[in-house]
Amino acid sequence: MRIGVVTAFPSEDWHSARLIAAVADRGCAAVVVDPAAVSLRLTRAGVEATAGAERLMALDGLLLARGLNPRGDADLQFEAYRELAHSGQPQVNHIDALLAAQDKARASCLFVRAGVPTPETRLIQRPDEIRPALEALGWVVVKPRFGSLGHGMLRVRDTPRARAQLEALLERDRSLYLQRYVDTGGCDFRVFVVAGAVHGAVKRHARGREWRTNLSLGGRVVPHVPGAALGRVAVAAARAVGLDYTAVDVVRTGAGPAVLEVNGHPNFELIWNASGLDVGAAVADHVVRLASLHRRRRQRAGRSIALPSHARAIRRAEAPRPWAAAGSSASCE
Fold first, then answer.
1. Looking at residue 73, which CATH number applies to its domain?
2. Most exposed: 48, 70, 211, 315, by fewest CB within 10 Å?
3. Which residues neighbour 252 within 8 Å (Cβ) at sequence distance 6 or greater?
């Protein structure tokens, strides 16, 4: 089987390199696809997605390791992934789930809709909403809607200085994401979920008086075995956003675990270095299982059509069906 691994940085990016190697370890051809090379051709016959000479719809599955290359057009790249998923090709993670995970506002709405516990949050656009939000939430974490590694986050409470600061941010960003601060004693949990199951976790400790636990800010990581409650909310968060694999940031509160956010492109190197656990192998197993099912469905669809002897065979694509994962490992046929 041939699995497309989408990334502009196949060797420079640890995450991409690990997924390429894990797919190849299972006997599959790992076809590296640069997002900036993707093109769409639209004719009466339908939509054809290519990357150079590679026909992307002919691949048995697609693994979006790093789905965006800023050297190209992001909207075109995203539309190509949607067309490939619409054709029935397995896509891990689906582009719409990745975009939802990237947008903290969208992800938080999905958590609430699915009943996933998450700290109270306000999303506002007007300056006159700042003070009531601060009064209602107490200590507040202000997060960029799109961002990672803890950069751009603030912790404030209702003071004249904080209101002025937030007014300036609102003027710049046009909206604010305000989440009630949960005092966790400087630690939280990152739980890795693949195909609806927990595949490991780490506990992150903030450095000194720093309240953020990110490694980029000096945080420390140790292996952790998550309890049932922690695992349940992490799996529920992944399911709410539609992610096949993710790392879920969870905190403990007096009412039980609560989800802060999900990561569509989680850093597997974090848990690899902390415990030696290879989450990339579980992701590769998952995408190979889905690709194998997809390939068998295409083969069955092709055999079910009586091909005329005087013309070239035109094989019809089978309508997409829900994908299911079974077993604990997979290999290419």
1. 3.40.50.20
2. 70
3. 184, 189, 230, 258
